[in-house]
Amino acid sequence: MSALQSTDPEIAALVAAEERLQADTLRLIPSENYVSAAVLEASGTVLQNKYSEGYPGKRYYEGQQNIDQVETLAIERAKALFGVEHANVQPYSGSPANLAVYLAFLKPGDTVLGMALPMGGHLTHGWGVSATGSWFRGVQYGVRRDGDSETRGRTDLDQVRELALKERPKVIFCGGTAVPRTIDFPAFAEIAREVGAVLVADIAHIAGLVAGGAHPSPVGYADVISTTTHKTLRGPRGAMLMSTEEHARALDRAVFPGLQGGPHNQTTAAIAVALREASGEEFRGYARQVVSNARALGEELAARGFDLVSGGTDNHLLLIDLSSKGVPGKVAAKALDRAGIVVNYNSVPYDTRKPFDPSGIRIGTPSLTSRGIGADAMPQVAEWIDRVVTGDGEVVTKVRAEVAELMRAYPAPGLSALRP
C-alpha cells in the first residue's frame, strides 16, 4: 500500500479504515465473505492493463498469449468443480450475467417466471423496477403463507406449476437472495419441461455450498446456471454462466458482444484462484460448517423468541421477522451495526411494511465461518443479537466491546489488521 499511500493518502486511509472495520466486526450479511490473500493478490495484478475482447483463441486484440491461458484455466476449473459442459467466466457480476440469459433466450415482451422480490427473489428475475421487468413480462411466484412448520414460508411449487401452465413463460428462474431452504431443482425441472421453458438456476448465494457438497446441485436439472463468484464461493466480485453444450453459443454471444466489451482479466485470474481453492477438502469442510453454523444460530435465536421465516434454514442464511419483537428491521439493523454486528434489514414474505423500512433482518454465516468460528460460538452470537434488539444504548456499547474481543481471537483471512 506504500504507492497508494504516497499517491492518494485519502483513499489509502479509507481502505485501511475499511480493513479495520472488516477485521473487528462480526459480519453477518449472507452475501459477504472474506477472500484469501491469494485471491486479493490476483485481483490487483498487471492483468488490469490488458484488453481482451472475445474468447480464448478468438480475440480482437493481439498480445493475448498469457490472458488466454488465464481464462482457459478459469473455465476448465469451473467445469470440473461444478461438473458442467460449458462455463463462461466473463460476466462482470450477477445482474449482467442474468441479463445475458434474457438476451440469449428471450425477445422484449416475452414472459419470464421468477420468485417475487418480497418473497426472497432477485431484482433480475423479472421484478418491475429492474430492466428485466420493464423490457420483459415478469410473472412472480411466492412462498406458502399458511400451513405447518414443514410448508409455511417455503416455495409454493403448486403455485409455480399453476402459473407456468397459465402464463407459458419461456424462462423460469429458481433461486433468490433470501431463500433459507433447499431449492428443489428436480421439481422446477419437471415444471419447466412440462411447459417447454428454459430453467435457469440462480445459485449466486449458494454456489460455494453446491461446490462444497453442502447443497444439492442443479446440474442435470437446470439448462443454465447463473452465479456470482463471491458470496459463499469466496472469490472476487464477478460472475459465471454455466450450461449444457447445447446453450453454450447463445450464452457466449449474449455476454460478448451482446452486453459487454473486454472482460476484467484481473478478476478472471482471481476467479481461477478461488475455483482452485474451492476444489480442495478444506473448502468442503468450510461449506459444511457454514450450514452447521447457520442451523445452530437459527436454533439459538428461535429459543430466544425470534420468528424465523420457514422455521429455520438449510443453507447459509436466516430471514427473521421481528414483528413479534415490536422492532422494525431497519431500527434493529442500525442498532446491531453500532454494536459491531453487521446485518441488513430485509422484507419478509407478506410484509406489511415498506421495503426501505421492512419488518425483518437477513443474517448469514459465511464470513464468520471463514474466520474459523464454529457452532459452539452461536449461543453467544444469538445472545448478542437478542440483547441489542431488545436493549438500549448502554447494551450496544457493551456488546461492541465483546464482539471486538471475539474478533481478535479469530483473525480474518486476507486481512492484516488485528493479526497477532
From TrEMBL:
Co-factor(s): pyridoxal 5'-phosphate
Catalytic reactions on record: (6R)-5,10-methylene-5,6,7,8-tetrahydrofolate + glycine + H2O = (6S)-5,6,7,8-tetrahydrofolate + L-serine
Gene3D superfamilies: Aspartate Aminotransferase, domain 1 (3.90.1150.10), Type I PLP-dependent aspartate aminotransferase-like (Major domain) (3.40.640.10)
Protein family per UniProt: Belongs to the SHMT family.
Serine hydroxymethyltransferase-like domain mapped to chain residues: 4-385
Site (described: Plays an important role in substrate specificity): H230
Binding site for (6S)-5,6,7,8-tetrahydrofolate: L117, G121, H122, L123, E245
Organism expressing this protein natively: Streptacidiphilus jeojiensis
NCBIfam families per UniProt: PRK00011.1
EC numbers, comma separated: 2.1.2.1
Name of the molecule in the record: Serine hydroxymethyltransferase
Molecular function in Gene Ontology: glycine hydroxymethyltransferase activity
Superkingdom of origin organism: Bacteria
Job of this protein: Catalyzes the reversible interconversion of serine and glycine with tetrahydrofolate (THF) serving as the one-carbon carrier. This reaction serves as the major source of one-carbon groups required for the biosynthesis of purines, thymidylate, methionine, and other important biomolecules. Also exhibits THF-independent aldolase activity toward beta-hydroxyamino acids, producing glycine and aldehydes, via a retro-aldol mechanism.
CDD domains according to UniProt: SHMT (cd00378)
PROSITE patterns: SHMT
Chain positions with N6-(pyridoxal phosphate)lysine modification: K231
Keyword Cell inner membrane set for record: no
Alphabetized HAMAP family for the sequence: SHMT (MF_00051)
Subunit annotation: Homodimer.
EC class: transferase
Annotated localization: Cytoplasm
InterPro entries: PyrdxlP-dep_Trfase (IPR015424), PyrdxlP-dep_Trfase_major (IPR015421), PyrdxlP-dep_Trfase_small (IPR015422), Ser_HO-MeTrfase (IPR001085), Ser_HO-MeTrfase-like (IPR049943), Ser_HO-MeTrfase_PLP_BS (IPR019798), SHMT-like_dom (IPR039429)
Pfam families per record: SHMT (PF00464)
Species lineage: Bacteria, Bacillati, Actinomycetota, Actinomycetes, Kitasatosporales
UniProt keyword terms in alphabetical order: Amino-acid biosynthesis, Cytoplasm, One-carbon metabolism, Pyridoxal phosphate, Transferase
Main location, first listed in the record: cytoplasm
Known pathway: Amino-acid biosynthesis; glycine biosynthesis; glycine from L-serine: step 1/1; One-carbon metabolism; tetrahydrofolate interconversion
Gene: glyA
